[in-house]
Structures are given as C-alpha cells and as structure tokens.
Description:
The protein is of the alpha/beta class.
Amino acid sequence: MTALPAPPAAWADLPFFADDWPRVAAALAAEPRRWYPGPANLFRALELTPPAAVRCVVLGQDPYPTGGRATGLAFGYPPGLRPTHSLRNILAELAADTGKARCDGDLSGWARQGVLLLNVLLSVPEGSPRGHARLGWQRLADQVLARVARRPAAFLLWGEDAQRAARAALAGPPDPGHLILPAPHPSPLSARRGFFGARPFSRVNAWLEARGAPPVDWAG
C-alpha cells in the first residue's frame, strides 16, 4: 500500500498528530477496503490552507465514498466532472447570491484563498458513509477548529453535523469577533429548508471587506 503522508508542517504541532495519528495511520494501513480520498489527498485541506491563512471555514461530513470523486476538500469535486448532489446546490446558491455562475466543482481555488474546506472525518471506506467515524478523526477536527478560532474567521456551518462539530470550539471565551452563519445542509433533502437564499458567499465577503480584508473570489 502507498505510504501514508506526514502531518502537514503548519499543523503538525496539534496534539492529534503525536497522540492519535500513529493509531489512525495503522488502522488505515490495515483497512481491507478501498478508502477515499486516498493517501495523497488525505491532508489536502490542511496543506492548501495553513492556520495563518484561514479566513473562512466550511465544514463537511466525510469524503465522497465513491471512486474518482473525493479530492480531500469538503464538498469539492475533481476538475472536468459534472458536480452532483450537495455541490450542485452550493454552486446554484453561489450563482443566485453573487451572479457568478460556475459548473466546475474544483474548489482548490477557494482553499488557496484561505477557505478551509475541512471534513470532520478525513477518510471514508468505499460505499460506507461515516464508515471511519470511530477512527478518531473528530479529535483532529476539534483541534483544527480550536486553532482557527483564536483569530477572527467566518464559519459556514451547513447542517447539524457541522454546527455540532463547531459548537465546542466557538463556545468558549474569548470571542475574537467571528462571523458564524449556520444553515441547513445543501443536500437535496434539506437545501430548500433554508440553504437556498441564505446568501453565505456575499455575507462572508461583506464581513471581510468591513474588516479591511480582500473578498474571496468565489468564481476562482
């Protein structure tokens, strides 16, 4: 099996990597099923968006459990493939909110602009959503969110899982002035219950510009 990656340098001091990663890595190495996004993209969200660069956080549940789709970025899709399900609704809301239409689901441009596209679970066995929920990935997500929460950031919390995952990190003092935007999940089952019309993209940019920061080019 391909060797598992080293912790991303900018995040390597998180306790997870000393206390939990050896055990999680051993479990992934012993996993008899194919799992996604695979070793090369396992830490891609953290690699593309180091702590000092984070301006906005989007939380997902876990990678797509189907071959050829998971990119290591929450909700992201490989270039050249037609987006489906939740991502299609995200891009529809983007177009309605900003007037900027895009059909490509490659979200790496967002990540490079400081949008941390973090799945709470960084791996998933083929065909088994939440199949790695007991590996301990939640501890990494908790620590990443706690690190990010030290400085002002926008949090797009789509769905109850994301809101629950962020609750502890955002609950305690001090509050550095975050923008927290909860909304229903963009899946076809819930998008019409308040995700559509929430205007998260323009609201994040208005908040950034009010702080003197450049907006995110959501079309990029």
